[in-house]
Amino acid sequence: MSRVVVTGRIPKPGLDILRRDGHEVVAWGSEEQQPREQLLEQVRGADALLTLLTEQVDAELLDAAGEQLQVVANVAVGHNNIDVPVCRERGVVATNTPGVLTDATADIAMALILMASRRLGEGERVIRSGTPWQWGMFYLLGSGLQHKTLGVVGLGGIGAATARRARAFGMNVVYSSRSQAPRELELELGAHRVDMDTLLATSDVISLHCPYTSSTHHLLSSEEFAAMKRTAYVVNTARGPVVDEAALVEALKAGEIAGAGLDVFEDEPAVHPGLLECENAVLVPHLGSATIETRTAMATLAADNAVAVLAGREPPTPIR
Ligand code: GLV
Ligand code: GLV
Questions:
Q1: Distance between CA atoms of 247 and 263, rounded to whole angstroms?
Q2: What is the model's pTM?
């Protein structure tokens, strides 16, 4: 029997998989994040860890767990919270949950594109604040998406799913990516690959779908905002630090870009106070994968990954 430690609260079907395999399951039962000290205590003696994106999986945590640890199964596709090289050094397999949250996250990206370009957040605030309003020919005008260009940064599963939605709204698609997408995908999306400078200069909406790594830190900063159209919108459903938040505030305030939609923040859960002052920023609290169906699928995939490694099998979705 192995000891599986689940560091945060996850949907029950995930726990069921772990228990069905006969493991001893220790789960933190609260929605609130476990204090680090307590987490370090909880993981002691674990053979497998199921971790949330709010937890740093580093040498300290691996040390606290002990040498018997075999697998860290992140209940997230993004794995910037995990020090993968350190896991590798110690022979600990790290896994994530790609695929199962692709549609949910693309839905939120599309929602933010619509909210920002049609000023829905502003409109909502008008009504809720009790401010008098009246239909007017020029009242809260936004911009249409049809025949505009979506620039997708990172054409992985989520980027492609967002592009597919944007196409349905009549947008054209360009993308920048580390590698060329398969020809069939480019044909399906009518998308072509451009360099980042071209993407910045020609896109009406720029949507981020790259992982957060040292090379995507502040990928969008002052220089990039200055290179965008003044009518451009920036949407981030990837990871907060891909955008230089202070520079974004400057760009929004100076009218260098038209607006932004953010699901993730540089110093989550803190939000740059300047953003709160920007009417042209739509701000939502990291809801990309937040559907019952998706969270359940993430939990069961993470559990499948953990039980596979504990059984000496190849896990379905290892981090490469
Ligand atoms: C959510 O942000 C994830 O990476 O799964
Ligand atoms: C990962 O990028 C995914 O699309 O699931």
A1: 17
A2: 0.96
Closest-lying ligand to the alpha carbon of 100?
Answer: 2
23 catalytically annotated: no
Q: Which residues pair with 48 in a beta bridge?
A: 4, 71
Domains of the chain: 3-100+292-310 (3.40.50.720), 102-283 (3.40.50.720)
Query: Identity (one letter) of the amino acid at 54?
Result: T
CA distance 242 to 239: 6
Closest CA to 159 of 185, 134, 136: 185
pLDDT digits (tens, 9 = 90+) for 57-81: 999 999 999 999 999 999 999 999 9
Complex-level ipTM = 0.69
Exposed/middle/buried for residue 169 (C-beta within 10 Å: 0-12, 13-18, 19+) = middle
Could you tell me the two tokens for 248? 């974004």
Residue 198's Cβ-count burial label (10 Å; 0-12, 13-18, 19+) is middle
* Ligand 2 proximal residues by C-beta, below 6 Å: 77, 98-99, 102, 156-158
The catalytically annotated residue of 239, 245, 266, 295 is 239
Summarised one tens digit per residue, pLDDT across range 209-253 is 999 999 999 999 999 999 999 999 999 999 999 999 999 999 999
Residue 76 Cα to ligand 1 midpoint, Å, equals 4
